Amino acid sequence: MSAEEPTGAMVEGEDTSLLIVDDDKPFLTRLARAMETRGFAVETAESVEEAVAKARARPPAYAVVDMRLGDGNGLDVVAAIREKRDDSRTIILTGYGNIATAVTAVKLGAVEYLA
Asked: Considering the domain boundaries, does residue 30 fall inside one?
């Protein structure tokens, strides 16, 4: 890594696909823009149904998923991603965290659970 290269920079040839799932449109848009500037190839979804369809069509290398969505539970998105791609790195975001859902998220393959 050169002195000019920022820590955590994307490596050429690395799969930078990122699926962001949140039903808060302003947050979703802002996070997507921020991650694009960091080198990620971002796709977004505002519902479980939309996210599961995108995950099955093109399983992402990375995902940031809200726990509570208007049409269901973000854990269903994590499970759909892991069915197609077991090396995907997923983070769960929630304003309603508890130990039981954190444990379930990790068992389904989430690498982080942020309450």
From this structure: yes
Question: pTM here?
Answer: 0.87
Structural domain for 51, as ranges: 17-114
Q: How many domains does the chain have?
A: 1
Report how far apart, in Å, the C-alpha atoms of 75 and of each of 50, 58, 80, 110 are.
14, 18, 9, 9
In a domain, 78, yes or no: yes
CA angle 43, 49, 51 (to 5 degrees): 20
What is the rounded distance in angstroms from the CA atom of residue 60 to the CA atom of residue 115? 23
Residue 8, domain member (yes or no): no
Mean pLDDT for the stretch of residues 81-105: 93
Match 């955590």 to its residue by tokens: 8
Per-residue pLDDT of 41-55, as tens digits, reads 999 999 999 999 999
